[in-house]
Design goal:
This protein has about 280 residues and is an alpha/beta fold. It is built from 9 helices and 12 strands. Strand 9 and strand 10 form a beta hairpin. The termini are far apart.
């Protein structure tokens, strides 16, 4: 049994009179990548921000390493969780290496140590960004900036990575590369795990240990990609007809989306495409 890194129980949150999340439970164990899936407005980003302490739950509790997140100071939270937002609004007027070194702030006392610099340098190399190290952050493309912010979070060495669509601005090749590196970090460090908001079902199927499917503010299904990413669940949550099969080369799950579900079929069992 893997160690529990994070546990959220019965989380509730609303914006004014509009409920966003109701009774949501989530667990993250060491060595796990957990994919958060759901339609726009399902509460994925709100949930991620509660797991990081940026939003305070209006009900329920978040434990990180067995300790209540709400009782921690900012520095302690930053040692436990690292958050990458969906969009990057700040344009840091500094070198890329200095942006990544900001991830070491929770660990720094009076000055940066040689270890801090080594962690930042190694993280840039791991993500294939070492050639950008001394370029200005403002000179990078949107996709390059996104990868630098991911490097900053990884250099934080927090136990739980909370990533909100970390590949949204990347081309397909870089999407796969980034997910492989996240997967590698979680696999090689027995004290780390990740929760990632995704929209690409096939990337989630290929890289996540578990999938949490949110629908109308609640957990519709949770489990392995094979158990959760069924045509019935996808039809109900995303309103699409699809087929789910395995790749002949490696047996990986593949989702093929065909068209949207017709309103008259919303409450009916989705028939096999062969029928």
């Amino acid at each position: 049994m893997t160690d529990m890194l994070l546990q959220a129980t019965n989380l509730r949150f609303a914006w004014g009179d509009r409920p966003v999340l109701e009774g949501v439970d989530l667990e993250v164990h060491s060595g796990e990548v957990v994919a958060l899936l759901g339609r726009n407005g399902a509460g994925k980003t709100t949930l991620l921000r509660m797991l990081n302490g940026l939003l305070t739950p209006q009900g329920g509790e978040v434990l990180v390493g067995g300790d209540a997140l709400g009782m921690m100071g900012l520095t302690e939270r930053a040692k436990r969780t690292a958050y990458v937002p969906q969009s990057i609004t700040s344009a840091f007027p500094m070198r890329v290496i200095d942006v990544v070194l900001l991830g070491r702030r929770p660990h720094v006392t009076w000055r940066l140590s040689d270890y801090d610099v080594q962690v930042a340098t190694d993280t840039l190399k791991m993500l294939g960004l070492n050639e950008f190290a001394f370029r200005r952050f403002t000179e990078l493309s949107g996709g390059e900036r996104q990868q630098v912010i991911l490097a900053k979070a990884m250099a934080q060495e927090a136990g739980v990575l909370l990533l909100d669509e970390p590949t949204s601005d990347l081309d397909l090749n870089n999407q796969i590369g980034v997910m492989k590196r996240i997967r590698s970090v979680v696999d090689t460090d027995e004290k780390r795990g990740a929760v990632i908001v995704m929209h690409d079902l096939n990337i989630a199927a290929g890289f996540a240990n578990r999938v949490v499917l949110l629908h109308e503010g609640k957990v519709e299904a949770v489990g392995s990609p094979r158990d959760v990413l069924t045509k019935e669940n996808l039809a109900k949550v995303f309103m699409v007809n699809c087929t789910v099969d395995e790749a002949p080369t490696d047996g990986r799950l593949r989702i093929h989306v065909h068209d949207e579900v017709k309103p008259s079929l919303q409450n009916e069992k989705i028939e096999d495409d062969a029928q």
